[in-house]
Amino acid sequence: MAEQFEIDVDALRERYRIEMEKRIRPDGNQQYKELKGEYAEFDEDPYTPRVEREPLTTSTEVLIVGGGFAGMLTGVNLAKLGITDFTIVEKAGDFGGTWYWNRYPGCMCDVESYTYLPLLEETGYMPTERYASATEIFEYCKLLGRHFDLYPHALFQTVITGAEWDDDARRWTVTTDRGDTITAHFVVVAGGILHKAKLPGIPGIERFEGHAFHTSRWDYDVTGGSPTTPMDRLADKRVGIIGTGATAVQAVPQLARTAKELYVFQRTPSAVGVRNQAPTDVEWFKSLQPGWQEERIRNFTESVTGVKPAVNLVDDGWTEVMWENTQKLPESEDEAAALELSDFLTMEAIRRRVDDIVEDPETAEKLKPYWAKNCKRVCFHDDYLPAFNRPNVHLVDTDGKGVQQITEKGVVVDGVEYPVDVLVFASGFEVNTDLDQRVGFDPVGRGGQAMSERWAEGARTLHGVLQGDFPNLMLISLVQAGFGTNFVHFLSGSAAHCAAIVATCRDQGIDTIEATSEAEEDWLMVLYGAAGGPAGYVQHCTPGFYNSERQEPDAKAARNLVYAGSVIDYLGHLERWRAQGDLAGTKIVKAGDPA
Ligand code: NDP
C-alpha cells in the first residue's frame, strides 16, 4: 500500500542511524523519575475526593487487581461462567483504568471505536464517532460496570500493598492501604500496562515554581475548562509541554487554541498520519449482523500485522501504514530490501505530509520523523501539524538531546530559558520497569519468596499468565505476553483465559494450579521463536519504550520479552492450550489432596 516516491535509500539509512545515535543515553530507562517520594504528588487523583471507610476483613473467590478493561473483562467473563464471588480492587475512584486517568484535552483512542470498545454487541451501545473521545470511553466503562453489574464487586480508592500465599490454607492473603485483609482463592493481576506515569529526568525538575502536572493527572483547576469544554484560564498563560508522543499529539491542538503562548519541547518527532474522524453512520451500524464485532476486531489485527485479509474492513490510517509487516524475518536478501523500501516509503509519505501542512519550512523539517515505522507508536491526527502554523505556537526542538534543564521560571534548551506559567509533562508511562514496581506490590509466593526474587534473572511464566510457586496467581501484563495496536484485543483474550482457568479449577475440583518450570522454559522458547524479526528490527530503532530505551540487554531483559508476533497468534497459544483440556505444563492439587 506504500506510495511510490523517489527516495535515496542509502541516504535515508544513514539519516536514521544518525538520528538514532544522537538519542542513545547511557542511563536508558533510568533517565525517568518514578512518581514516589518528592514526586508522589504528581500521582494524586485530581478527579475524585477521597472517601474514608472502615477497614474490611473478608474473603473472596477471585480478587482482581485493577478496574480497567482487563479487570472489568475478567469480572464479566467470570460472571458468564457462573463465578460471581469476585472482588475488583482499584486505586481510582471508578472503573476505566487508562480512561479514568487520562482526561487531558483532546484525549481519544486512535483505534477505531467499533473495534476498540469491547462487547458492543452485548451492550447494544453505538459509539458516536469513528474514534471515540476519552470522555465517551470512560462513560462506556461505567456503562459496562452497570450492564454487567460489576459495581457491587468493586472496592475503589484502594491500593493493594501486599499479597502473600498461605500454603496451608491454599489462599492468598491480600492487604491494602485501607487496612483491609482479604483472603482470596485466586488473584488476577490485571493492572500495570501503561498505568504508571513517569516524569522525565531533567535536572532542576523539582525547582519549577509554576503549575506543573502530568498529562494523566490533568489539572483543570489551573487550565480551566474540562475534557469537553475549552480551557478558559489559559488565555493569559504561557504553557510549556514536554514530550511529543501520542499523548502530546492529541493535547497540543487544544492547548494551541487556548493558551496565550504554547512552547512544545520536542526530543523526537512523532509520525502523524491522517485521522479522518467521522460521526458514526447510524444506518451502517444498524445494518451490522450478529458476530460482526469479533470479525472486525480480528480483521483489524490482521490488517495491521501483515496478514492482508481479502477485505480490509476498517481501512484507515492504521491499516494503511501497517499493512505491510516490515519487521517480519525476511527469507531472502530481496525480501529484506523490499521490506526496508516499503518502510522507507511509508515514512516518507508521513514526512511529506508535514511539508504539505506546516507553512514554515524550518519548523516542518524539525517535525519530520526519521525512524522506521515500528520503532514508536505512529499517531493519526488532523489538527496536530496545523497547530504549528499558529503564531502563538512555538516548536522548541532539542535535536534529540532533550530538555537541558528546568528552572524556577521555565525550561532551558541550548542555553535559552523559555519562561512558562504552566508546565505539562507528556512524558509517558513506565513500560519496561519491573512488574512489581508497576503494579505497586510484590506478591510473596510459596516459601516466602517474593516475585521480584523469583524474577531476579528475568520473568518465568507459562503464557505470561501462570508461574511456579505462585499458585492461583494470574497475570495480565506485557511481560512474556501479547502486545498489539488494539490493546483491548489482547486484554479481552487474556481476561477470558484467566476466567476460564478459574472455571476449570472449579469444574475439576482443583484447589491450586501453577506452572511447571519445564513449561516456563518451553514458553520462553516460543517467545524467542516469535522474536526473530522484531528483535533485529528494533536494534536499528531510535530509543523508546519499544526497545527499553536501547539499554544494553542483560540476563533479565533476555527473559522479559513480549510475545512479538501478532495478538492473534498469542491468543491462539492460549486457545489451543485450553482446547487441549489437559492443563498441560501445570502442577495441580485437588481439593482434599495433600500438596
Ligand atoms: P511516550 O512515552 O510515547 O512519549 C513521551 C515523550 O516524552 C516522548 O516524546 C519523549 O521523547 C519525551 N521526552 C522524554 N524525556 C524527555 C526529555 N528529557 N526532554 C524532552 N522530551 C522528553 O508517552 P505518551 O503518553 O505520549 O504515549 C504513551 C503510550 O500511551 C503510547 O505509545 C500509546 O501506547 C498510549 N497512548 C495511546 C493513545 C491512543 O490513542 N490509543 C493516545 C495516547 C497514548 P522521545 O521520543 O525522544 O523518547
Describe the structure.
This protein is of the alpha/beta class. The chain folds into two domains: 9-33 and 199-275 and 327-425, FAD/NAD(P)-binding domain (3-Layer(bba) Sandwich), CATH 3.50.50; 57-193 and 432-590, 3-Layer(bba) Sandwich (FAD/NAD(P)-binding domain), CATH 3.50.50.60. Helices cover 34% and strands 16% of the residues. The protein is built from 20 helices and 21 strands. Strands 2, 3, 4, 5, 6, 7 and 19 form a seven-stranded mixed sheet that branches. It has a five-stranded parallel sheet with strand order 9-18-10-11-14, covered by helices on one side. It has a three-stranded antiparallel sheet with strand order 15-16-17, with no helix packed on it. Strand 10 (238-242), helix 8 (246-258) and strand 11 (261-266) form a beta-alpha-beta unit. The longest helix has 25 residues, at 333-357. 48% of the residues are buried. The mean pLDDT is 95. Bound molecules: NADPH dihydro-nicotinamide-adenine-dinucleotide phosphate. The site of NADPH dihydro-nicotinamide-adenine-dinucleotide phosphate has 28 residues, from helix 8.
Task: Give the secondary structure arrangement, pairings included.
Blueprint: H1 9-23, E1 32-34, E2 57-65, H2 69-80, E3 86-89, H3 98-101, H4 113-116, H5 120-123, H6 134-147, E4 154-155, E5 160-166, E6 171-176, E7 181-189, E8 198-200, E9 211-214, H7 220-223, E10 238-242, H8 246-258, E11 261-266, E12 272-273, H9 282-287, H10 292-303, H11 317-322, H12 333-357, H13 361-366, E13 379-380, H14 384-387, E14 393-397, E15 405-406, E16 410-413, E17 416-419, E18 422-425, H15 435-439, H16 451-454, E19 473-475, H17 487-508, E20 510-515, H18 517-538, H19 555-559, H20 567-580, E21 586-590
Parallel strand pairs: 2-3, 2-7, 3-4, 7-19, 9-18, 10-11, 10-18, 11-14, 12-13
Antiparallel strand pairs: 1-8, 5-6, 6-7, 15-16, 16-17, 20-21
Helix pairs in contact: 2-17, 17-20
This protein binds NADPH dihydro-nicotinamide-adenine-dinucleotide phosphate.
